[in-house]
């Protein structure tokens, strides 16, 4: 987090460590990889031939957990890429201490084991060996446990169990998170279907950034932004997908909208044509 505050938005670390491979420290490896997948750059690299900290050398549990969070990171690439554009525009890093987003909350000033990943995800890595639980601070507003869907009120500390296969991640209420299909490498195939994970709360919006991903044309303002908006009232939820704006023409997307809702009617508006459901 200090790197981000110092103006270095993209940095990395060797998941599992660079040297001193040990097949007996599976817990450390699993927790390190969970944290690594929610770092600005995810890198698996190390010495100590012939293992190089490859996940399958740590057993099936470690391998399954690595797959889980590597898959999640690939799915989050549209969200990550948009946040990286924010770094380019404003120097606001993808991974940042909570005080940057909640400067009026003094409780965030000294938090060193939880951080924001983009505008909507709060990540709380488990860093204590053998930990069965850990305390998390929630800033103002409402938060949702990414794994369970539990809603948590802000401005409080709360303790949670920490099973080894779960990285504690919490979603800020109102979030709109674009996700792509699972791929084995970046741009393995065109992203024709985008899933929008929506956590409705009052009025909220999100602008997804896209460019060609290959050239420097973004420096010539050849890019596009697509705005999504969510409006939740006591008895109705309205979600709007606007037409992409900008000099870049992205692939035509089909949107799969997944929302955490409780007994309300919902209306989808795509390019300002309403669909009542």
From TrEMBL:
Residues 1-83 form the Glycoside hydrolase family 31 TIM barrel domain. InterPro entries: DUF5110 (IPR033403), GH (IPR017853), Glyco_hydro_31_C (IPR048395), Glyco_hydro_31_TIM (IPR000322), Glyco_hydro_b (IPR013780), Glycosyl_Hydrolase_31 (IPR051816). Keywords: Glycosidase, Hydrolase. Residues 92-177 form the Glycosyl hydrolase family 31 C-terminal domain. It is an enzyme of class 3 (hydrolase). The keyword Hydrolase applies. Its EC number is 3.2.1.177. GO terms for molecular function: alpha-D-xyloside xylohydrolase. Residues 194-255 form the DUF5110 domain. GO terms for biological process: carbohydrate metabolic process. The keyword Hydrolase applies. PANTHER family: HYDROLASE, PUTATIVE (AFU_ORTHOLOGUE AFUA_1G03140)-RELATED (PTHR43863), MALTASE-GLUCOAMYLASE (PTHR43863:SF2). Belongs to the glycosyl hydrolase 31 family. This is Alpha-xylosidase BoGH31A. It comes from termite gut metagenome. The lineage of its organism: unclassified sequences, metagenomes, organismal metagenomes.
